[in-house]
Design brief:
This protein is an alpha+beta fold and 271 residues long. Helices cover 30% and strands 30% of the residues. It folds into 2 domains: 150 residues, Major capsid protein gp5 fold; 84 residues, 2-Layer Sandwich (hypothetical protein PF0899 fold). It is built from 7 helices and 16 strands. Strands 1, 6, 13, 14 and 15 form a 5-stranded mixed beta sheet that branches. Strands 7-16-12-8-11 form a 5-stranded mixed beta sheet. It has a two-stranded antiparallel sheet with strand order 2-5. A hairpin with a 2-residue loop joins strand 3 and strand 4. The protein starts with 12 loop residues before the first helix and ends with a strand.
């Protein structure tokens, strides 16, 4: 039996195809972290842990016949999931009448799992010892000006890039914003005739993203080169079959993922 246990269900291959399509399309519309983080994998669901190196500090250490690696730690790749149920009578009725099955439950579960992934990328999970882009110790933090007026946002973000360049961090820069800050930038900048968001996008080669997972009043600028950070994927987003309970079909949308921050100086959080 495969890990996803699909063969234990009596669902048709066509219905599985429709469920997969609904889940993946919904997740893609929700996810933001994957749009700028390099993806490492998929490695397979059986890969349970992976190393996280501190850039520029890794090296072997010999001690009385033992060799270890400094500035390297190993972290478990956690599983993220959301369950949903499809009513057996609804599936039977749609098959009998020949119309599309209602997959709203699958869509909502996919969106919830995608939001969970983004929150994990940005905030980690302190209870379990995981760091996120905004919560990792040692990242650069800058006081955010009032972004509703003037060219404050442009100036702050340019200063963030300058601070990374001062630490010799160059490459692809990307900015992720909470929805309220993203909307604050949808205005004409005085004396330019341009929207402030357009000036910022031009500075960042278009890599500006809006993420509801950030909540409100938060922004993070990163140099998202693989040497600085990535997103480890074991099992990519998929749907597993759990059981038939009270005749209804129970499913799980799941993935195993881990954000790796290798160079803390490549992250600038605006507070």
């Amino acid at each position: 039996m495969s890990y996803l246990s699909r063969e234990s269900s009596a669902l048709s291959a066509e219905l599985w195809r429709k469920i997969d399509t609904a889940v993946l399309e919904s997740a893609r519309k929700t996810l933001t972290g994957r749009r700028f983080l390099p993806v490492f994998g998929p490695l397979g669901v059986g890969v349970e842990s992976i190393s996280i190196d501190s850039a520029g500090q890794v090296g072997e250490v010999a001690n009385n016949g033992f060799i270890t690696t400094k500035a390297r730690k190993y972290m478990e790749i956690p599983a993220l999931y959301q369950d949903f149920t499809l009513a057996a009578r609804d599936l039977e009725n749609s098959a009998r009448l020949g119309y599309q099955a209602d997959l709203t439950g699958a869509v909502h579960a996919a969106q919830a799992c995608a939001r969970m992934e983004d929150k994990f990328i940005y905030f980690g999970n302190g209870d379990l010892g995981y760091e996120g882009l905004l919560t990792a110790s040692g990242i650069q933090k800058r006081k955010r000006s009032e972004w509703k007026t003037g060219e404050n946002a442009f100036t702050d973000i340019a200063a963030g890039i300058e601070s990374m360049a001062a630490k010799e961090i160059y490459g692809t820069y990307a900015l992720s914003l909470s929805p309220d800050l993203y909307l604050d930038l949808q205005r004409i900048q005085p004396g330019t005739g341009l929207l402030e968001i357009d000036r910022i996008k031009k500075m960042l080669d278009g890599k500006v993203y809006q993420s509801a997972a950030l909540g409100s009043g938060k922004a993070v600028l990163v140099c998202s080169e693989p040497a600085n950070m990535d997103l480890v994927i074991g099992q990519d987003l998929a749907v597993a079959y759990l059981e038939q309970k009270e005749l209804n079909h129970c499913f799980r949308v799941l993935e195993t993922v881990l954000p790796r921050i290798k160079n803390k100086n490549a992250v600038v959080a605006f507070e």
